[in-house]
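Incident log, structure service

09:12 report received: a user says their structure output differs between two submissions of the same chain.
09:20 pulled the input from the user's history:
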Amino acid sequence: MKTKGLSIMALLLIASMVLTACGTTAVETVIVEIEGETVVVTVTPEIPYEPVVLQWNWNSEPPTADPSLATDTTSLDLDSNLFMGLTHIEDDGSSTPWLAESWDVSTDGLTWTFHLRDDIPWVRYNCQTGGVEFEYDADGNQRFVNAYDVEYGSKRTIDPATASDYAYVQYIIKNGQAVNDGEEGFTLDDIGVTAIDATTVQYDLEFAAGFFPAIAGMWTNYALPSWTIEAAHEKWTEPCTIVTNGPYVMTEWVHGATLNLMKNPHWPDADTVQIDEVHGVMINEASTAFAMYENGELYTTGVPLDDMDRVKADPVLSEELYIAPRSCTYYYGFTNNKAPFDDVRMRMAFSMSVDKQSLIDNVLKGGQVPAGQFAPNGIFGAPVYGTVGLPYDPAGAKALMDEYLAEKGMTVDDLEVVLMHNTSEGHAKIAAAIQQMWVDNLGVDMETQNQEWKVYLQTIKNTTPLDEMPHIWRLGWCADYADENNWVYEVFNSDAGANRLRRGCVDDVCTEVAALAFDDLTEAAKSEPDPAKRVEMYLEAEKLLSEVEAAYIPIYHYTRVNVTKPFLTRLYPSVGHAEFAFWSIDTSAMP
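09:34 re-ran on a clean worker, output below:
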């Protein structure tokens, strides 16, 4: 009986092996002896785990992964996944605990004290093993993010040796501007950032500002790994070298091609992160990215302007289309101290010749809002739409230009104007449409140039030699935090902001309007304690900028125009960046 049973069971085992090999079943059959009896046991082997992968497009090469140097949305999409800020900006613009568990503010509003978590480890991806490893100090102690790392990160952004284009955000911190400007007698030790102990960091401010928790959470104040930066210098952000503390780690960066991320298994909240890997490409052409989306190679992407009508009419794609307001503004900047736009009449003429509604209706088709101001609704202090801005007035524009030309003894053919934008099919179509408006309304033709994103950002800095600057250039601005200070002051104030427009006196060349009223107004508004008064001040500032100075052309307030596969659940924050830790993929619904 025992021999016969073994023969039968041997046949069963062979049959099971055949079935498994053919892929019919994942069950294996084994023979065991229990208390003298031979028993057939079926065992279901463990199925190898398949990681959940997001197919993503960075759109372009991130100019940097260094938080102290980041200025653009691509770099910030990357950094917001690799690092944690003290606070987190929610969709309604509020600041909630993130790296900091809580914070206190002094009665005079000048001192903010943040109490940090003590369980966020510093980690590094090991390219040899493919694993994520903890960081240890020279004594073998595991490194956790502490207040000294925050102090280092904040001061590093301010340090003039870092050459951060975003250092002006830190001017709210006591002595931040003095140190960044290199004023004699000021050192990094004078900056108002102090680690009280390992889990407590204190910020002393130049003025009271209720919106400071939002600034404290910005990348300019990220905790940074000093030991890695000081050892690797500018190479510290390369894969296998970069040390991070966020929900993802960088596993690969082939410059100009791919940049991949992997979930950080040591992040304390890793169990809440569902997407294991992000496979990111760098496709700048919207049409190519959209073709990849339709082919299933990308899970979410923007919609090319040429495809908007087709997407809206398609029964499948229209269901995957998402259009909603976004706290961003698309604008054309004038180089205010470069002829002919060193004259306000020419800036007004070009601004009043742009039919923004026609651009939206016939080119963009994404429900965008024509802009007369800089900050969109939803930002504290932003004017109500339609209350600010120059009108579309071709006749009035032509009269202003003719007056200028007559005064200068010139004709329209004498005008030499260069319009520049970063390389993009969408930006090119917008530029072509607006350029045609200037031809039709003013009789002005011009040269159009484009540059790749990383190069372009360097070209339009306010330190570029004037003769190398385009006369007009495009840019977008998205909210870092939901307050007008982040818009009119930090972007356009000639004393403390980025001032790419070169308002006031730059390069020993002054515009005919020094615009002191705007600068003084935005300087005062940031520290005004009465919210109602701040709203009034920002309304006046927006009018001065777009109507009186005509320093730039606000063109439209963004909407998100995306298609997303039904199996991907993603967020569309009006403020903030793409944070994959809060997204999820239903793998059972994937084709």
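09:41 both user submissions now match this output. Likely a transient worker issue. Closing.
09:42 reviewer note: Confidence is low (pLDDT under 50) at residues 1-25. The two ends are 51 Å apart (CA to CA).
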